[in-house]
Amino acid sequence: MFIGLLGKANVGKSTFFSAATETTVAIGNYPFTTIEPNVGVTHVKTKCACKHFGITHQNPSCLDGVRLVPVKIIDVAGLVPGAHEGKGLGNKFLDDARQADVLIHVVDVAGTTDIQGQPVPPGTHNPLEDVEFVENEFNQWFKQILMREWQKLLKEILQKTATLVEGITRRFSGLGVKEFEVSDILKETGLGMKKPTEWSEDDITLFVTKLRKKTKPVLIAANKADLCKDLSIIDKIKENHVVTCSAESEFLLRKAAKVGLIKYISGDSSFVISNESTINPQQKQALDLVKTVLTKIHTTGVQEAINHAVFDVLKFITVYPVEDETKLSNKDGVVLPDARLLPVGSTAKDLAGTIHADLAKGFLHAIDAKTKQRISGDHTLKDGDVIKIISAMSRG
Ligand SMILES: Nc1nc2c(ncn2[C@@H]2O[C@H](COP(=O)(O)OP(=O)(O)OP(=O)(O)O)[C@@H](O)[C@H]2O)c(=O)[nH]1
Ligand SMILES: [Mg+2]
After folding, report:
1. Could you read off the pLDDT of 172-198 as tens digits, one per residue?
2. Pocket of ligand 1 (CB under 6 A)
């Protein structure tokens, strides 16, 4: 599970990354601050399975029944129009983000940066243009991958050394694209019925656009909302998944919480100052400003965007593997030690495979700790399941 940050140069990707991972990376009000990618760990928040059993347990990943599940996140170089032809840093960002399962497209909705990412007065640039060009660059990148070897692919099909599905999937294997996904798009577009030698330019564009949307779905983080004079611009973004954000506010709140100035849990709509007397006037002013932002946009949106990307866009579920289904623990007695994110539709055997290949290889059956029932390898798991795997082979 990998989240990638995508967007025009200078929109706040690294600020979002810093806030989400609580790490310090280069942030600057000019394009191409980031060149080499930053990789870190953030968390999704979900209801811990301890709630179902009505138990309390000592686990730093469980805060009063709210479970933090780690997710990798990558912050990459920004884009400018024409990146697919080498403008700016070209497609470097895409090469770095290829492992991402889902992308958070950070957009400067306050319009404080022009199309090249140069600072401009707030409201002077139309963010809708950015949404369009970034998506277009992303699609163009997919198209180039296919076009690079199109003639070779046609030859393979003619010589029957590969089918259309195999040939296309191979070109996109570095991006984790699966045969069934290629197959689905061929069916959906009707292009599976058309000879590839007869595909027009438009057919190819349609195919790659659909494949990109399916295999690298995007959520829009409408960032710099704190500077946005008219938030109704966000409603004009024609995407299914949009979250209003102020990465800078989240960055500040997490920093203040870390040093004990405030009590704040990421995703909250308010914070409490721990001790008014220890706060200096600058800190007070900054926190007052954030308070105003929270009144305007409710939460900073960073945690919401991460959760939404994983649970709503990708539709992942959380499953808890245990070694003792009555004590709900591992063999050292740690209760609900592990939480795993799996795609919806994953089976008990899939879960075994995420723990160790040998566990899946020797899979006998599993036990659902909630019902205490025995389940088979092809049993589909549900969100919040607590599962013990019984395997003929131990972990390695
Ligand atoms: N007001 C406000 N400023 C923000 C927000 N997020 C980022 N910024 C500012 O925007 C500028 C760019 O931030 P970065 O995080 O470096 O942007 P980036 O997208 O990583 O930029 P590149 O790496 O150059 O592509 C900095 O001055 C940030 O302080 C936000 O939510 N609100
Ligand atoms: Mg950056």
Report:
1. 999 989 999 999 999 999 999 999 999
2. 7, 9-15, 27-29, 31-34, 78, 223-224, 226-227, 246-248
